[in-house]
Amino acid sequence: MSSLLQIEVSPGGEHSVSRKISTEFINAWKAAHVGGTVIVKDFATTPVPHLDGEGIFAGYTPEDARSAGMVSKHQYRQDLIKEITGVDEILISTPMWNWSVPSVLKAYFDQIIIPGQLDGSGADGLKGKKITFIISQGGSYAEGAPRHGWDYETGYLKLVANALGATDVEIILAELTLAGVVPGMESLVEKKEASIAAAIDAAKKRAA
């Protein structure tokens, strides 16, 4: 049976555009993979801790010399790596915050990237995985937009996936999601709705 790791980042609940699109993806995926397993990690309710000194240096310390904190934090990282490398597909649904990824998602990557186990230098544990990123952006960073070139999220996410060995990577983007919410963006509501609709369609096709 097929298996999928679903990672949700947005704390927006029912107001979250990225979650709305990921729900459509999951529904389509379950319909196409009857009996498949979906493992859900919700960083809004159960955030990943940021990597600290004990977590980093545990890997460079002999097992019999590790402190109790090192043992616990190293095992936590091993469990995360085992989880993500043990599935067939990965779905990460996230908003853009301040032109990049939310810190909790960066914390997750910091926890799972370990030299010699899962890294960008040959330990490509995500090789053969199908990875989908669903991203919501409050504005637009497309060519011709006033802030074109300010998007430091989509390129980073694709780089991480590729560096860890994945080649089947797709980014599904919904933009202008703050139109109708933030004053001054009222004229962009129609474009927002079209972008979300296109993202939902792309998500369904990708899942199926």
Structural commentary:
With 208 residues, the chain is α/β, with parallel strands linked by helices. It has six helices and five strands, in the order βαβααβαβαβα. α1 packs parallel to α6. The longest helix has 19 residues. The chain is globular. The two termini are 15 Å apart.
Please count the helical segments. Answer: 6
Largest sheet: 5 strands, parallel
Number of domain modules: 1
The N- and C-terminal alpha carbons lie at a distance of 15 Å
Low-pLDDT sequence parts: none
Give the strand order of the largest sheet, numbering strands 1, 2, ... along the chain.
2-1-3-4-5
Query: Which overall shape is indicated by the principal axes computed on the Cα atoms?
Result: globular
**Name of the top-level CATH class:** Alpha Beta
Global structural class: alpha/beta
From the 3D structure, determine the CATH topology. Rossmann fold
Question: How do you describe this structure in short?
Answer:
This protein has 208 residues and is α/β, with parallel strands linked by helices. The chain has helices spanning 17-32, 53-58, 68-85, 103-112, 154-163, 189-207, and strands at 3-8, 37-42, 89-95, 130-136, 168-174. The two termini are 15 Å apart.
Comma- or semicolon-separated keywords:
single chain, alpha/beta, 38% helix
